[in-house]
Every structure is written in C-alpha cells, then in structure tokens.
Amino acid sequence: MTKMIVYDVTTQASPLKRKNVETELFGQAVSRGVAIGKVTWLYGQKRQFYRINLNENQIEGELRRFRGAVSLAKRQIKKIASQTSESARTNKTTILDAHLLILEDKSLTTKIADNIKLRKVNAEWAVKVVTETYIADYKSINSTYLRERYIDLEDVSNRLLTVLGGEKPEFLPHKNAIIVAKDLKPSSLIELSQSSPKAIITERGGWTSHTFILAREMDLPAVTGIDGVLQQIETGDEVIVDGYNGKIILYPTEKNLREYKIAAKKFKSVKVESLKTAGGKLKTLDGRNIIIRANVDSPQNFLKAERVGARGIGLYRSEFLFNQYKDFPSEQQQINAYQKIAQLVAEEAVHIRTFDLNVENLTGEHSEKEQNPALGLRGIRLGLLHTEQFRIQLRALLQASAGSKIAIVLPMISDVSEIILAKKILQEEKENLRKRKIEFGNPPLGAMIEVPAAVFTADDIAREVDFLSLGTNDLVQYILAVDRDNPAVADWFRTLHPAIIRAIKTVLAAAENNDIPAIVCGEMAGSPFYAPILIGLGAKVLSMNVNSILRVRKIVSGIAFEETQEIVKTIEKCRTADEIEDLVRNYFVEKWSHLFSSDILTPRKS
Ligand code: PEP
Ligand code: MG
Q1: Closest ligand to residue 542's CA
Q2: What mean pLDDT is predicted for residues 591-605?
Q3: Which of the two residues, 465 and 217, has the higher pLDDT score?
Q4: Ligand 1 pocket check for 450: Cβ under 6 Å
C-alpha cells in the first residue's frame, strides 16, 4: 500500500509543547554547508502534498482538477479489472468493485469538493482531511469485517492522491524553506527544488542515500539521523542547519543567529568562487592520467561539471527521469532527454544506467511493499521481469545513440546470465528498429559491480561487457550487510573495511585483465580522502558529484601515484577498518596535510 507525503505550509500545532529554548540536536552531516530558515514540515512517505490556502478565483480550477482525478482514478480501476485474468478474478475484482463504489459514493466526493470550496484548500489536502475522518470512523466500528474496510478507503485515497500528484504541482511551499521530514524521497526533493529550499533535516537516510547525493549536487546543506525531530519542530519555526558538524539548532539565540548568518554567507560565496576555477587534463605528480567524469542527470549540472573539468558523464541515473515524470517516461520523452544530454557531452560519452528502481517506486498495479526492498525486485531484475518498460528504454537508448556517444549501464548485476539476457533483448530491439527503418546507434554496454556475487565473478562479467562501473555505495551496503539509508547502522558502513578494499582491487584487476575500462562511480570516488586509495588500487576513472570535482582534482594533482601504491600496500596488511582508517589518516597528515582542509582528515564512516 502506498503512503503519501503531505507537507503543510501553514502553522501546524506540534504534538509537543513549544519550549522556545535554544536546543542543539545532533545527527549525521550528509551535505556540507550552513543555512538558516523557516521550517516546512513534511508528512508521510510516498507522495508529497501540502496544504495551501487558495484565493477565491482558484477554487473553480481546483474543483475541476479534483473531478478530473476522480474520473481518471475510476478509469484506471476499470482498466485493471478488465486486464485481470479469469483465475484471479474473484478476489481482485471484488476489491476493485469496492474501490469503484467508494469513488462513486457521492457523499464522499461531495464532502471533498465542499472542503475545497469552504476551506479554500488544495485538492490533495481536502482528500487527506476527508478520507482521514472516514478512515477513523471505520476503525472505530465493532465488526472486524467492517473495521477492515478502511484499507479500501486508504487505497482509494492513495490512488486519488497519486493521480493528483501525477501532474506538476501548481503550488509549492514558501521559498527558502528548511525541509523537515522523517524520510525524504528523491522525487520529493526534485519537486521541492522548484521552490529553492535552503536545507534538509531528516530522521532517516545516510551519506549514500540518493536524496543526499542529490542534496550535495544541489549544494543544499543536510543533516540526517535526528530521531524524533518531527516532534520537536513545527512549520514556521526558525532553525539553523549546520551541515559541517551534523547539528541543528532550534530556537536559536540572537548570538548564534548572528554567527551562523556569517557562516551561511561564507558558504554561499565559496560555491560561487569554486565555479570560477576551470580544469584541464588531470595527472598525478608522477604523471598518471586520471579521468574525472560527472555523476549528473540534468543538462544544467553537466554544464557546471564541465566548467570544473569533468570529462563526460560517468553515471546518469535514468530513474531520476522517472521521479520527474512520476511514472515511466514515454519512449519519445526518453529519446529527447538522452539526446539532449548526449549532445552536451559531445565527444565524451554519457553512461546511462537503465532504471534502477524497486517495485515500491512503481505506481499502479506493479507497486508493492517489500519486506527488504534493497534485496528485492530492483534494478536489472525488475527490467528482466517486466520487460515492456525495459524494452522501451533500450529502444530509446538505441535511437538516442545514433550519432551520439551513449553507453548503457545495467544496474544490480549478480549473475552473468542477466547480462547475456539483456544483450539478447538489446539485439531483438535493434532488429525491431531495423525492420521499422528507424536509425539507431551501437552503444557500448557495461555492468554495475555493486553486489558481492558480481565481485567474485567480475572476470566472467568483464568478458561479456565493454566496461565495468563500480558502485561503491551498494557494494559497501551489500558486502557489509549494512543498510545505506539507516542512520542507526551508520557506524557499520565502513568504506575502508578490508573486505571492501579487497573487493575493489579484484574488480579493477578484472577490468585491467580484460582490457576494458572501469569507472568508479559510488560516493567514495568523490571523496578527497578515499580517491587516493582508489587510485592506489588501480582506478583510472572516477565519476562523482559535480560539487566534489574541484576538491578531488586538487588532491589528485598534488599526490604521486607511487605514494598511493605505497599506502595501499600497507593497508592491505590491516585486519580491521579501524586500523586502515588510522593508517590512512596518519599518512595523510604526515604527507598530504597541505592539500586538505581539516574537516576532510576525518574519514567518513558513512
Ligand atoms: C552505487 O551503488 O555506488 C551507485 C553508484 O549507484 P546508486 O548510488 O545509484 O545505487
Ligand atoms: Mg547502486
């Protein structure tokens, strides 16, 4: 069952009484910077909505939008019912009939419409308020059978909200908000970015969560892992976010506000400064060529990355298109997006990863709650199971690569047979386009190495593909069995664990032995602390967030390849992550401290 995110731009009473006493709360710093602003509180998990007070002249339009959503939701249900196989018919259609009846129930839809009219609120908010009242009524019924019916109502409410959310939001929260949420989805952040938020605070997430990868790309300070933060903050409160030290300050004193305003201003000017520096070819002091590519998903960010010396795009996470369209983009929409980015990268390729989604991300009938989504139906598994969307994406990639440098990356590979099957499908789609006399290119194919099984079989995989793409975020998660999005286990997310060092070495050697490139594209590659280790392990191509490029360039051009090999030789003798971290830190302090600012010399555990 889908959950929704609701955010409220009006003042909302907090469950706890306001204290109004300056309070510091500590979490994990996941995106650098300092910001001061007013809180916008987000609710729920999947869809985001916010209460907005409408003007009189907006009400008619909003009512039309609501009625349109009801009609579309009904059409969707009828379509699913008509596609249901005979054997599955009884149960499924009974449920769908119940959903249809709810949507046809005039008392419900009239109440929602009245709510829009009388309270002058947006449709999402009205749906939420009215259905919540109905659900509460159902839950208080004595009969177990009737009590359970609230689930149907919740389903219908979610469907309506999803349909409403499928459109571009007409209204956004106030500008410069500090977004506070239990968990923030990347798609929610993309939507919110239109109103230029200033910072993010969440209870859940980690350094390698997509939301914070995105936050760093957007230069948005962020702190996560602050338990119970929603109970302590309310919409409209002023808060300081210190994304250097993983701290937030509620009800700040005048003195702190003054000091942090200076820090926030400095943070802004550093961003502008850094963009003035352009880069050419990158070499270590002893002449080893290192290529830096960018992890970007938008043309604007690629232009920014190019200005600081990025050569092409090492990782384009195509699922961000899914976030943008709130569903699978059409073949043509994909062709347009891929061509646009490929034209910009010109001679250097853009490595486009096929959708790395899980079933929970999907909308409609395929969406499903999984016990363990990271180990579930995601990435290539989803593509090979529901081949329809996979084929559309491959066709779009093939067409967009006619005359453009595009490479295809397959996510979550755990068995070489998945590559063989994907290649077969790719071949079929080429035939398909050839028959239709549609022009297409011949993009190289690569595999993400991010699952332990792929490390052990890296040599076999390397023989089947044109390049390897090392995803250290998932690699650490899966090798160490530590959820990358869960701050409670952040201390176990040890990038410099001996097992990770050995895995990376194995993969880089497999690429070298098979004479194909390997791109390291997890967050590790963008860390000035870890990049020298990767280089010492044999990495020649690092792909990173646009805002990491200058920092990593500075380090790479100030160190010798020989030194990185020397440090790797020593760490290979270590037995624990602690030992390696200490060793690396001491080496850096001794030899390279002139290249680092002090905050970087503390290795990030997550
Ligand atoms: C990775 O897993 O390291 C990676 C680059 O992919 P993502 O962060 O999108 O999972
Ligand atoms: Mg990954």
Answers
A1: 1
A2: 62
A3: 465
A4: yes
Return all residues near 67 (Cβ < 8 A) that are at least 6 apart: 113
- What is each CA distance from 84 to 89, 363, 595, in whole angstroms? 6, 17, 63
Rounded-to-5 percentages of helix, strand, coil across the chain: 55, 15, 30
The model's pLDDT over 71-99, given as tens digits with 9 standing for 90+, comes to 998 998 887 777 655 544 555 557 778 88
Q: Are 310 and 292 in contact (CB under 8 A)?
A: yes
Q: How far apart are CA 183 and CA 202, in angstroms?
A: 6
d(CA 525, CA 522): 6
Distance (Å, rounded) from C-alpha 468 to C-alpha 451?
13
CA max distance for the chain? 78
Contacts of 79 (CB under 8 A, 6+ apart): none
Beta-strand relationship, 28-31 and 238-242? unpaired
Alpha-helical (H) ranges within 449-537 are 452-456, 458-464, 472-479, 498-513, 531-536
Ligand 1 pocket, mutate which of 208, 293, 354 (most atoms under 8 A from CB): 208
- The number of CA neighbours under 13 Å toward the Cβ of 351 is 29
The residues assigned a catalytic role are: 210, 521
Tokens (6 digits) for 187: 């798609």
CA nearest ligand 1 atom 8, residue: 473
The alpha carbon of 472 and the centre of ligand 1 are apart by a number of angstroms equal to 7
For the chain, how big is the Rg over CA atoms in Å? 25
Contact 180, 157 (CB under 8 A): no
What was the pLDDT predicted at 365? 58
Query: Which pTM does this prediction carry?
Result: 0.76
As a whole number of angstroms, the distance between CA 157 and CA 160 comes to 5
521 pocket-lining for ligand 1 (C-beta < 6 Å): yes
